[in-house]
Design brief:
The protein has 333 residues and is of the alpha/beta class. The chain folds into two domains: 134 residues, Rossmann fold, CATH 3.40.50.2300; 135 residues, Rossmann fold. The protein has twelve helices and twelve strands. Helix 2 packs across helix 10, helix 5 runs parallel beside helix 6 and helix 7 crosses helix 8.
Length: 333
């Protein structure tokens, strides 16, 4: 190559390098990424939907030439914060490029997430928040709005007057605490609706929720006109309690999240509405957001994955059916 051509080529190469460094992007072709996806549990339909969405993301990325493997690992019990901490810590030495985490406790998971960041492993948080800025992005439903939707629907069902109770989930879970706060704040704007109990907790399982609901139903008896529960297990346990006590359908009941049993209960008028998220989309976007970050693309600090009310009146509409029946078997079979 003569000197004239060389003088032209060198500045062009330098310009190309400068532009690449300004954008900070990395060509992902030929690279293999390994991500840890850590939910709060694995038995609820909600977590299965997140898992399926994460698997879909890997397939979509592979179709675009990006090789991504996810390692799905959940605590054995959904209320075991210590085990979830151990799961996160265990991945710090397993060569993962990033972590997608649904933290059980917004405070307890701060230390392991910050340890991961110091080890060069970024974290995307999904579903429930964490008290740390050391994360790439937070993807979740607007849980406070979900609680407000439940209160608005309850007021409509009761004609603006009556006595209701809230059976909380567990302390320390940011997502359900936001739903509970949204419900209590909104229900208090209806002067003729009285919140007669809001300080009892369902616990992590359907069985503990059933026992807690039975205690409340027996304590308040015929005073109760409405109940709100803020997640799948509390809704499932309360539904069983209402059925066992012969009060299903007699009390206006609104739950959160979805399952086949809830759809059946709505058709039978035992459940009068559920606030539904999009966990499939949450899992899919969680993985894709992490990969965007790893290859240098800009990502939003917070992403709203949506929340809406499904009731017996709109349960058969296409938009509702899509949320009620995510393609879990297609991706997890």
């Amino acid at each position: 190559m003569d000197l004239t051509k060389l003088r032209c080529v060198i500045p062009c190469c330098l310009l190309a390098l400068l532009l690449a460094s300004c954008h900070g992007t990395v060509d992902p072709s030929g690279q293999a990424f390994k991500l840890a996806v850590i939910p709060q549990g694995s038995t609820h339909e909600f977590w299965k939907s997140i898992h399926a969405g994460a698997v879909k993301a890997t397939q979509d990325l592979k179709a675009n030439g990006i090789d991504v493997t996810i390692i799905w690992k959940a605590p054995l019990r959904e209320d075991d914060r210590e085990q979830q901490i151990q799961v996160v810590e265990g991945f710090l030495t397993q060569g993962v490029h990033g972590i997608v985490l649904a933290p059980f406790d917004r405070r307890a998971l701060v230390r392991p997430v910050e340890e991961a960041r110091r080890a060069g492993i970024p974290t995307v948080v999904i579903d429930s928040g964490i008290d740390s800025e050391d994360i790439v992005s937070f993807l979740a439903s607007n849980n406070h709005r979900g609680g407000e939707l439940a209160a608005e629907h309850m007021a409509k069902l009761l004609g603006g007057q009556g006595k209701v109770l809230l059976l909380r989930y567990q302390e320390g879970v940011a997502s359900t605490e936001a739903r509970e706060r949204g419900f209590t704040e909104k229900i208090k704007t209806y002067p003729q609706i009285e919140l007669i109990s809001s300080n009892q907790y369902a616990g992590a399982t359907r069985d503990t929720a059933k026992a807690a609901a039975e205690n409340l139903l027996n304590r308040y008896g015929d005073q109760i006109q409405g109940i709100f529960t803020p997640n799948e297990s509390s809704t499932s346990g309360t539904l069983l309690a209402l059925e066992d006590l012969g009060r299903a359908g007699k009390i206006r009941f609104i739950g959160f999240d979805t399952s086949a049993a809830f759809v059946t209960a709505m058709h039978e008028k035992k459940l009068h509405g559920i606030i539904v998220q999009n966990p499939f989309r949450m899992g899919e976007l969680g993985v894709k957001t992490m990969i965007d970050h790893l290859i240098g693309r800009p990502v939003e600090k917070q992403i709203d994955t949506g929340v809406q009310l499904i009731s017996p009146e709109n349960v058969n509409e296409p938009a509702s059916q899509e949320l009620l029946h995510p393609p879990i078997n297609r991706y997890l079979s």
